[in-house]
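Figure 2 data, in text form.
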Amino acid sequence: MVVVESQPLNHTTTYASDYLQNYRAFESDDETAVNRMKMEKMTRLLLESSDPLARSRAAVALGALGEEQAIGALEHALLDGNTEVRHQAIKALGRIGGDQATNLLGDMLMHRGDGDGDKAMAAWTLEQVDSEPARNYLSASMPGASTGTVDQGQAGAPRNPNSSPGPSNVK
């Protein structure tokens, strides 16, 4: 038996590990194993990469996979210092859906937006989710919601008709 000391991951060990996982997943032709491998790789990229574009694309990929297991990593990305990473994480949570993702989006809308369009992006995403909890967060965020004088024509965040917080050009 060979004992290997634990070493920090480097490009060579990561590549070898990824190759082995790819081989095993495709050898078994198990779509679940392939998706799990993709999710693990994208989660690691989102949490560990120093490149904002890589983190942003990882958030997009996690949203496309649609697995609830990605919500923890996406929640972490909501605190990212890069606006685009945060926005892609918000949209990914909307794509995944479910109570936990909706609650995170509602929390972003109600309490955590930082002025870089995070609240507007959360409002837009909640509109796309179109569930009862999402509508409740949107209603509560409207001006006058606590006094019962909500103007139904106003959104939870100011909107510029010339720019939408919708999908961006990052793929």
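Caption note: Helices lie at 11-28, 31-48, 52-65, 71-77, 83-96, 98-112, 118-129, 132-141.
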